[in-house]
Every structure is written in C-alpha cells, then in structure tokens.
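Dear colleagues,

I hope this message finds you well. In preparation for our joint manuscript, I am sending the Metallo-beta-lactamase domain-containing protein (Flavobacterium bizetiae) sequence together with its predicted structure, so that both groups work from identical material. I would be grateful if you could confirm receipt.
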Amino acid sequence: MKVTYYGHSCFSVEVEGKNLLFDPFISGNELAKDIDISTIKADYIFVSHGHFDHMLDVEVIANRTGATVFGSWELYHYFGKLGLKNLQPINPGGKGTFEFGTVKAFISQHSSSFPDGAYAGSASGFAFKTSEGNFYYSGDTALTLDMSLVAKWVDLDFAVFPVGDLLTMGIDDAIEAAELVKTKKVIGVHYDTFGFIKMNKTNAIEEFKNAGLSLYLPDIGETINI
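The corresponding structure tokens are as follows:
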C-alpha cells in the first residue's frame, strides 16, 4: 500500500483506488508549510479524537473533496453542526464494511476535547482489513493491553503509532505496542511538531532495529510503499 505522510499525525493510505486520510492537521503545522492542502486527495477522513492538532483541516478538505468523515458520536455531531454532509459515526468496538474494506474502531487511552474545552467523546484508533493489506492506526494513545485485541481481529501488515512521548507513547512503549498487535513494521507519527515532542530519529530507528522491528519515519510529503 502507498502511504503519504503530511506531518504530525496526518497521513493517507491508498486502498482500492480510494484515499483514506487520517487526522488532518496541516495548515497549522509550520513543519508542513510546503504542503498545499488544496491538492490533497481524500475519499474518507478518519478522525481519532477532538484535539485541534488532529482535526484542524477536516472541514476544509471534506467540503472540497466530499469525503466521508468517520469519528466518534461526539465528532459526528460536531461536524454535522459545521454543515458537513457525509458523516459516519463509529465508536470504539464498532465496525463496518465499505468500498475500501472493513474498519473497526478500538479504544485509545488519551484525552479528547474540542477547541472550546467541551468533551469530544472517546479517543479511538482504527484497524483495517482490505484486499491489499491490513493496517492499524492507534491514534494518540498510551500503551495499553487492549491493543492485544487488534491482533485477535486482524493480521497486520503494519501499524501507525505515536512515538513522540510526553503526550503519547514514546519509543519504548511503541516497541511493546508493536509486539501486542503482532507487527514488525511501524510508521511513527506525532513527533517533532512541538518543542516538547522533539525526537532523535536516528536513535529511534536504531532502538526499533535492536528489537527486531522496522520503524519508518517518512519526510513530510513523502510517499512510501509498505
């Protein structure tokens, strides 16, 4: 599958000719200043939780592309009030089959609130079964034994984990998370955007290698095949 990284926790996966976009936070990210959001393709947008650094550009991209936006019940209502028309609620434990394959939401251990501080529902991750491969995006999360439930549902080709520490898992916990979900390939996100989540990329890749795992840290705007 082709995965394109847009900075912070935003990335897209191309499946069955459809573009699945995750947690779009681009226009507010100085590190992604060379990304033109008007060119980003999206047939589906998955929002893991309500923090601004995961949903800032949802409205603009969804209005331009007509993408269907997936998120918790609270996110579903929030985006509905903004006037978005193509919305699909999905809470942790729920799953559905669509033209790209089957998606199931899993709990993430993380806070979730809207920009005004209102409750934004449970934070979620999403696992996918598709004809071209299977993957899991944990969303912002701490390490949790609930991740073992992902491996019971799907055999993964790769996972996408936050690795920046302080607000989410760091490298050590992401390595253990990979063991829980039973994958050898991890794409790291949620690092370097802010001063308190700066990370030594070389050391991180080496730590994964020492654990028998591969950590991918694509440049912003880079597309990789995985």
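For the figure legend, we might mention the following. The chain has a mean pLDDT of 97. The chain has one domain: 2-218.

With kind regards,
E.M.
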